[in-house]
Write a structure and sequence with these properties.
Blueprint lengths: L2 E2 L7 H4 L2 E9 L3 H10 L11 E7 L2 E6 L4 E10 L3 E9 L4 E13 L3 E12 L1 H9 L1 H20 L4
Antiparallel strand pairs: 1-6, 2-8, 3-4, 4-5, 5-6, 6-7, 7-8
Length: 158
């Protein structure tokens, strides 16, 4: 059942009851990474493990996850080559009451990019416990997805 969840702002990234932060370095420029995150969202299933489909909506985008979860999101921050953040407004994920994801990009040596992904969320006690237990799996998914994104960005584009 799809339901509306609490409409939090960017401050929630720092104040959420559950915060998971993951990081990786990619050997590709910040601008290219940002373009994939913000401008080419429909392509996420090609590199982000667990994302089955992404479609633009009048208010943002709809994301279908491989396990059946769905989110309807709106963008909170879009600072080219530096920050991309979005809030889940509606979801069918049981127990979730608020969710913001933030991507921070910064330069590293040799023109590469440091990517930091923060998942800030709240919900029922069971939901919060399950999200915390999922940290190792999300870390693996993130690293695998970053490697796939790096490979994708290194391929020549038509």
């Amino acid at each position: 059942m799809v339901r509306r969840i609490r409409p939090v702002g960017l401050e929630f990234v720092e104040s959420a009851r559950v915060r998971l932060v993951f990081g990786a370095e990619l050997g590709v420029p910040q601008e290219a990474v940002y373009r994939e995150l913000a401008d080419r969202t429909e392509d996420w299933p090609e590199w982000f493990a667990g994302v089955a489909a992404v479609a633009r909506t009048p208010d943002g985008r709809q994301v279908r996850l491989a396990g059946g979860g769905q989110t309807w999101e709106s963008v909170l921050a879009a600072r080219p080559a530096a920050r991309y953040a979005y809030r889940t407004d509606h979801t069918n994920i049981p127990g979730a009451s608020a969710l913001v994801e933030e991507w921070r990009l910064s330069a590293v040596a040799d023109g590469g990019t440091r990517v930091r992904w923060t998942v800030a969320t709240d919900g029922t006690a069971v939901y919060r416990a399950l999200v915390r237990l999922a940290r190792p799996a999300l870390a693996r998914t993130f690293l695998m997805s970053m490697r796939a994104l790096e490979r994708r960005l290194r391929l020549p584009r038509p």
